[in-house]
Design brief:
about 260 residues; eight-stranded antiparallel beta sheet; 3 helices; elongated
Length: about 260
Amino acid sequence: AALARAPRARLPFVRRSADPLAAIAHPARVRLPTAAAFAAAAAAGDVARATTLRAESVRSAERERVARAAALSVERELATQADSMRALALAMGGAEAERVGLFGELATAAAMVFPGEDFDAGTTSRAGAWATLGYRTESPRVDLLAVARLQRDMRFLDHTLVDLGGRVVWQRDRLELSGELVHREASRVADGDLPTNDPLLQSGVRAVATIDLRATDALHVSASFGRDHPIEGRRPLVATFGITLQAGATPRVPLPGEG
């Protein structure tokens, strides 16, 4: 919306600059007294005419000076506006920019442990990869997301976790409501008794509803409720409530024409 308003913000400035720019672009419109006119007036002894021509010459030179100064100001102002619009466009196309329509994401990650802080003893403890496919509508603002994740936990017994599910997000103004449903298929390579510090991750479903409200630019409230994936035969409760307060100047991209 800010980028769409930018050209309209430039109109008053362009209108104010039209006349001096026209004087530079079309010098023929500025009638400068010629040397022949001075000579003719002097030869005829017409002092009044010569004085008038001299005054016109001074006024014309002043108008040209003002026009050229205005043209230089216009050039600087347009350069500033171009920089502002370029920064705004880059911000809109940045990594955090919101996209509309179909989009997808792929990611992977790994973690390592180094027992006794020995580099040669380092091993990969966990690794994972996940893919997200989504579709976003602009009005009403709705996100439809599908996720697939593969995780390996090799710290104790070798767990393999496969998650498949989705999430729906509805947003209006400062309010966002979402719900997710993800099924997990868990398996482990080793059999036998589990170490006491190794939780048994089990197959099951995660179902969570979330509400986010940005009451003001400085106040953000969020809450979640539901159940998580089963662990050791129980279904953990998901119940969170958070308040975020921010202080300081609000970061923003200056609009064209702003100093």
